[in-house]
Amino acid sequence: LVEVLVKPGDYVKKSQTMFILEAMKMQNHINSPTNAKISDLKIEKGDVVKTGQILATFSG
Fold first, then answer.
1. pLDDT band at residue 1, thresholds of 50, 70 and 90?
2. Residue numbers of the domain that contains 51
3. pLDDT digits (tens, 9 = 90+) for 20-43
4. In 3D, which of 36, 5, 7, 40 has the Cα closest to residue 20?
5. Spatial separation of the C-alpha atoms in residues 48 and 41, rounded to whole Å
6. Which end of the chain is more exposed for a tag (fewer CB within 10 A), N or C?
């Protein structure tokens, strides 16, 4: 994980970039699937992210 652009308590809009991951020397933007408030982040900068891993939880 290269960059975390949000924190718990933030409100995000659908398609807003939340994280930037690097894979095979390419940066990939991970966007919010919905309009919601972030309840918790399950990862932090520098973590290795696996396919299917939960990155954040939402409320509202």
1. confident
2. 3-59
3. 999 889 999 999 999 999 999 999
4. 5
5. 14
6. C
> First vs last Cα of the chain: how many Å apart?
26
Q: Domain total for the chain?
A: 1
The whole-angstrom separation of Cα 6 and Cα 59 is 14
Q: Which residues contact 6 (CB under 8 A, 6 or more apart)?
A: 12, 18, 19, 38, 41, 56
Residue 24 belongs to a domain with what CATH number?
2.40.50.100
- Cα 2 from Cα 11, distance rounded (Å): 21
For the chain, the helix, strand and coil percentages under 3-state DSSP, each to the nearest 5: 0, 45, 55
